Every structure is written in C-alpha cells, then in structure tokens.
Amino acid sequence: MSSPHLGRHMLLELFDCPYAELNSLEDVRSRLLRITDEIGATRVNENFHHFSPQGISGVVIIAESHLTIHTWPEHGYAAIDLFTCDASIDYDLAERLLVGAFKAGRHERQTLARGQMTVVHPA
Amino acid sequence: MSSPHLGRHMLLELFDCPYAELNSLEDVRSRLLRITDEIGATRVNENFHHFSPQGISGVVIIAESHLTIHTWPEHGYAAIDLFTCDASIDYDLAERLLVGAFKAGRHERQTLARGQMTVVHPA
C-alpha cells in the first residue's frame, strides 16, 4: 500500500458465532452503532433489516464511507465490511471490538486499498 | 472458489469518470436503483447522501445483501461494492452496466468469496 489511495477497506469474516448473537435485530443494530462511535466514525444514516426466517443485513453510512454487516445465524457466520477514507480510523481496534461483540470463535481479516491512484511522472 | 461459500463480493474501481457523473445525487441514485433492478436483485431499502463540497455515498440493501457506491468526483473515482448471497446474479452484467453508467475510462474488478466454510471430514 505504498502508492497513494483514497480509501481503505477491511473485510472481516466472523465464524463460530452463537446463533442468538447474529439473529437479534436490536442487538446487532445497537452493537454496530456503538462500535461506529467507539472507533470515532461519524454516523450519517443507517438501515437494518431482519430477514425471514433468519439473518440480518445492516448498513451504517458514515462520513468516512460505510460499515456493513450480513449475518447467517444458521452458519454462525457474519460478513462485516468497514470502508473508510479517513486514515485515522483504527482498524485493529475495529477488528477487536467487532470480533468481541459477536463472540466469534474464529475470524479472518483482509485489508485492501481502494482508489489506488496512478502517479504519473511527466517526462 | 471451489470450497463452499455463502456469498460473493465484487469490488469495482472506476477511474477516469467525468466529474458530473459522480456528483449528482439524483443521477447516482437513479442509476444504482435501475442497475439493481436490471441485474435481478430485490431492493429492500436505500440511503444516498451528498457530501459537501462534493462526493456521494449510497447504499442499496438488497435481499441478496448490498450494493454500495462512494464517489470522489474530484479524482474521477468511484468505489462500488456488490455483495450477494444469490449465485444467479450475473456479475459480468453488473460490471458492464456500472462501468457504462458512470462512463469510466478505466476500471478494475476483484471478485472475492465471502463466508468460506471449512468442510470437516469426520475420521
């Protein structure tokens, strides 16, 4: 990630989460909003939806970009994405808080650069 | 992507887009909603926000997961994410429609598997 980029994107895979942690709309929503605040992001808008028979999709639009979650309670799995254009957001802190909040037994994280600008050196 | 996974995630980087294509809230919103319909996804909810002095963040929650956009008109750049748990959504079509809608001069695409389940073979 040495070349200039406009945003960072953390893809977090949470495995082996208890069913109940992934299927309560109110709990999932309140955890994501709390963690948004704890990492110092600025909330702009949010939408959370409970699917039948199970599973939640949620999005927090933040001034820095977005935080999303999709849960598959029947598989103990949640996919979380944190996309930010503010370099001061602490991804290690976000990872720790999210893994803890959903009691994941195991997790994987990837962090990608988004909007990698090509630096052109004129001749 | 041979092992079982719950979702697919396309990360699309659009470069060299005209400024105006990335800075009209109404145009960005109507294009994303139209393309959501054209790829056969089911809209659940949506949020679009115009930042000052420029830039748009938008999210369409779909029954299949989400479609998001963040634009940097001053850099001619947009980051688009399509996350789906329905294998029938055509990512090649989505890519073509999105690149065309925003008149990107150049683009990059990555497609990732999300929720890769470990297959355990009992001894």
Structure write-up:
The structure is a homodimer of 123-residue chains. The radius of gyration of chain A is 16 Å and the shape is globular. Chain A has 123 residues and is of the alpha+beta class. The longest helix of chain A has 14 residues, at 25-38. Chain A contains three helices and six strands; from the N terminus they run βααββββαβ. Chain A has one domain (7-114): S-adenosylmethionine decarboxylase (4-Layer Sandwich), CATH 3.60.90. In chain A, helix 2 runs antiparallel to helix 3. In chain A, strands 2-3-4-5-1-6 form a six-stranded antiparallel beta sheet, covered by helices on one side. Helix content of chain A is 24%, strand content 43%. At the A-B interface, strand 1, strand 2, strand 3, strand 4 and strand 5 of A face strand 1, strand 2, strand 3, strand 4 and strand 5 of B.
- The structure class of chain A reads alpha+beta
Which strands sit side by side, in order, in the main sheet of chain A? 2-3-4-5-1-6
Mean pLDDT of chain A: 93
- How many β-strands of chain A, per DSSP? 6
Order of helices and strands of chain A: EHHEEEEHE
How many distinct folded domains of chain A? 1
Provide the CATH topology of chain A: S-adenosylmethionine decarboxylase
CATH superfamily of chain A: S-adenosylmethionine decarboxylase
Oligomer: homodimer
Uncertain segments of chain A are none
Q: In the CATH hierarchy, what is the class of chain A?
A: Alpha Beta
Terminus-to-terminus distance of chain A:
25 Å
Helical fraction of chain A equals 10-25%
* Radius of gyration of chain A over all CA atoms, rounded: 16 Å
The chain pair forming the largest interface, with residue counts per chain, is: A-B, 32 and 32 residues
User: What is the approximate shape of chain A?
Assistant: globular
Bin the strand percentage of chain A. 35-45%
